[in-house]
Amino acid sequence: MLTVVKHTATSVVTIERFIIEEERNHPEATGELSGILYDLALAAKMIANKVRSAGLADILGSAESENVQGEVQQKLDIMANEIIVKAMDHGGRLCAMASEEEPGIIQIPEHFRCGKYCLLFDPLDGSSNIDVNVPVGTIFSVVRKITRGRHGELEDMLQPGRRQVAAGYVIYGSSTMLVYTTGQGAHGFTLDPSIGEFLLSHPNIRIPENGRYLSVNDSYENHWSENARTLMRHYKGLESDHKALSTRYVGSLVADFHRNLLGGGIFAYPSNTKSPHGKLRLLYEANPLAFIVEQAGGAACDGTRRILDVEPTELHQRTPLYIGSKNEVELATRLLAGQRELALA
Ligand code: P6P
Q: Which residue segments constitute the domains of the chain, with CATH numbers given?
């Protein structure tokens, strides 16, 4: 009989201990996936440290074009990318990586052992917001290698989101939080900077079925389809007896998603005439967040299909994205299919 330890938010549980206890629910587990999650938590702490000092560096750096440590200041998202690659490339659990910051897949150096997983990530999403102190985030997705041979290949990366074995994000906000799932619920950990540990703060996150917030960039309204415009009017309570949602749009995906995950809401980035395939990336933005939101009782679609069922064809392919509270995503699916009468049901 597997003992499933149920933690409450008052338990002092580090992410490492939580990962080990989750691993115990899988007797066949080798510990490789747990190792990946440990290493990602370490990378998150290192990035958090850089993000926290970036503003200070910018202030000092703008005077002498150097940061506070006297180093030539790199672009923060390139720095975050380097931190993740260097933290993950030698653990022997990965056979390849893919990053928003790099055009092709990132191979594991020959002198390191290869493993059976692939890591896909956006090292620092929303980094343009750094200099105005808006929260930014790291997003990651883990899939199993499906090709033969030692090294990972593009085919290993181009798997539908339902094949993910783990996914998560880190939000560098008023506090640094790491939220992840391995298919056993979605769980949040808050970094205690005084001890440098991620502590369990949000066990078994559940997203409300109905939204409270609407996150959408209205400036593209004239470039949306008519169905998308109708959908947004519904969300705003202008088209039916749908409760008017409060508009909250930070312009940083992880910040908007995280608020809606905890409070209930819908993040919508429709395709538009400027971005006919949408703006957000399928493999390392939409897929991981879709895995998390479904584990929390929510949903995610591209307007017609469940995000996790989209069959990828390109590493950096984009997708329209409607993600959050289950009933709001279902309304999007109905209205974007032109089923206005059903939407009023
Ligand atoms: P727009 C940030 O650049 C980003 O990739 C996401 O974090 C964010 O949700 C989106 O783009 C914002 O896009 O077109 O509204 O500025």
A: 15-202 (3.30.540.10), 213-344 (3.40.190.80)
